[in-house]
Specification:
alpha+beta; two-stranded parallel ribbon; 9 strands
Length: about 525
């Protein structure tokens, strides 16, 4: 008997020492207290969470890629300038010079425009100046200008709006997928906040339950000591009560650790340090878990998940991309048949040489009629000389093995994407059905544990009345106290699980943002 008493007292001493060390380490420093509701924590997490901060960049990068892809259909301005001089010895007596010198300079400007059908057109204006010392020239220096229009349109290979705009469509799909990925991160973040918040609420409430249970055990221990002094109880009842007190003090330690752990998890998710808050800030949740029974229809939840789930939307968008790649690869196996059309108007001017007797063969220059460079430009715009050409070019490759390989690869990737979508559909259906069943099950658990807690309270009350008239012993009262504490903890856990199951249902059907009137566009930098 004496050895048992010593062992129990040692255990009590170790528990109290551990409790003191824990409290000094955890609560010895001054902490600033911050009261936060669940919605406050959600908004802070969406604003400060590092995962969200990283994911926000991806839509911006995808949008820049889309802008770059659209530049394909912006007009292009080409400017060319050439200036050259050639000198050579004469190779014919009629050249009239010991060294033949020719100077030539050209200016050219063109506007090139790609069109959505896969073709292109260009409008160009070229001007040149030619000067030489060779004999028998009619115009020297000579100025020329040409206004030209060219049009090229593929009729088979590379024809069509989808083929010509494929890079833009791919970039748009990538932008949509980036937005869906950001939405998925936001949904995950909201659920993680809800999970951490309700776990913190549970740990605090569970601590209060354990604290109340400890107080009941202490009260009974004090009562037993008085009755032992009066000779109404055996000393063994004091040992039993002390054992229960020590055990419940250990439970208090675990409950306090659970509070600190849950608080750290929540603070990490909402990242209060990003707002300049102190590291030792203590969060006090202001919301309590409520039991509002919600009827959830499985078919409605399934339909909503098909419309709202970002992972489903990403897979469907990827499927569209694969279908376009197959279409483009099929187009690339066609022969190349191109239609070309050109129209140009030249103009020529310069210094007209006047020969003696109007006979250039004699080579005697008697004068000049000055010409202007602008005259050739004017004649070109007047369309005085009309030139045009149209044509078709057919190119049939003798071997298009690589093109067929691209088509086969695109087809396999499309089949794979379709298989992924079917797999994801099954997974989503399972997640939604599990979420709906969890809501229904946890609602029943709340009712069941509430009834169990009420019955445990009545049973304890009855046992305490029996003890007061000598029809029971403190041992049974301690057992019923433990039963009531467990019943309260289980009811609280069921209530928290019910709220978490509602949050889980929101996440799996993809309505967490919509229910809070939060838009993905609000998070673009």
């Amino acid at each position: 008997m004496r050895r048992t008493t010593v062992r129990i007292r040692k255990r009590i001493f170790l528990v109290w020492m551990s409790l003191a060390i824990f409290l000094i380490f955890s609560f010895g420093q001054d902490k600033e207290v911050r009261s936060l509701s669940l919605e406050d924590c959600i908004l802070k997490a969406l604003k400060n969470n590092l995962n969200v901060a990283v994911e926000v960049y991806n839509p911006e990068l995808a949008d820049l890629s889309l802008t770059k892809a659209k530049e394909l259909f912006m007009p292009r301005l080409d400017l060319d300038y050439d200036n050259e001089q050639n000198e050579s010895p004469p190779y014919w007596w009629i050249t009239g010079a010991e060294t033949i010198t020719s100077k030539y300079s050209e200016y050219r400007a063109a506007i090139v425009q790609q069109i959505p059908t896969g073709g292109s057109f260009s409008l160009s204006l070229a001007s040149y100046k030619s000067d030489t010392n060779q004999a028998f020239q009619l115009i020297n220096p000579r100025y020329g200008s040409t206004l030209r229009f060219d049009f090229i349109q593929p009729l088979l290979k590379n024809f069509g709006f989808k083929v010509s705009r494929k890079e833009i469509i791919f970039a748009q799909h990538n932008l949509d997928i980036s937005n869906f990925e950001l939405q998925a991160v936001l949904l995950d973040t909201i659920y993680l906040v809800q999970e951490a918040y309700w776990n913190l609420v549970y740990s605090i409430e569970n601590y209060q339950v354990k604290k109340q249970s400890l107080q009941l055990a202490k009260d009974l221990l004090a009562k037993n000591k008085k009755e032992v002094e009066l000779g109404q109880l055996a000393p063994l009842e004091i040992l039993n009560a002390e054992t229960v007190v020590a055990s419940r003090e250990a439970d208090i330690l675990q409950a306090e650790f659970l509070i600190l752990r849950s608080e750290e998890v929540l603070k990490t998710i909402i990242n209060l340090q990003a707002e300049g808050e102190k590291v030792l800030l203590s969060i006090v949740p202001t919301d309590k878990p409520e039991f509002k029974k919600k009827e959830v229809r499985l078919d409605e939840a399934m339909k909503m998940a098909q419309e709202k789930r970002p992972d489903l939307q990403m897979t469907k968008k990827d499927l569209e991309t694969r279908e376009l790649k197959v279409s483009v690869a099929r187009n690339q196996m066609l022969p190349a048949l191109n239609f070309q059309a050109s129209y140009w108007s030249p103009g020529v001017s310069g210094d007209r040489l006047l020969y003696e007797g109007d006979d250039p063969l004699r080579g005697i220059i008697v004068g000049k009629e000055k010409g202007k460079a602008g005259d050739s430009l004017r004649d070109a715009f007047k369309l005085l000389y009309r030139n045009w050409t149209v044509g078709l070019t057919l190119s049939i490759p003798l071997s298009n093995i690589l093109t067929r390989a691209d088509y086969a690869l695109a087809q396999v990737e499309l089949d794979q994407s379709q298989a992924k979508l079917r797999t994801l559909d099954q997974q989503v259906a399972l997640e939604v059905s599990d979420a709906v069943r969890n809501v229904e099950t946890n609602a029943k658990r709340v009712d069941a544990y509430r009834l169990a807690r009420e019955l445990a309270a009545k049973r304890l009350e009855a046992e305490e009345k029996k003890l007061s008239v000598g029809l029971s012993t403190p041992y049974f009262v301690l057992e019923y106290q433990e039963g009531l504490a467990n019943a309260r903890s289980m009811e609280l856990k069921a209530l928290v699980d019910y709220n978490l199951s509602l949050a889980r249902l929101e996440k799996v059907v993809g309505t967490s943002l919509e229910n809070r009137n939060i838009k993905v566009t609000d998070f673009k930098r």
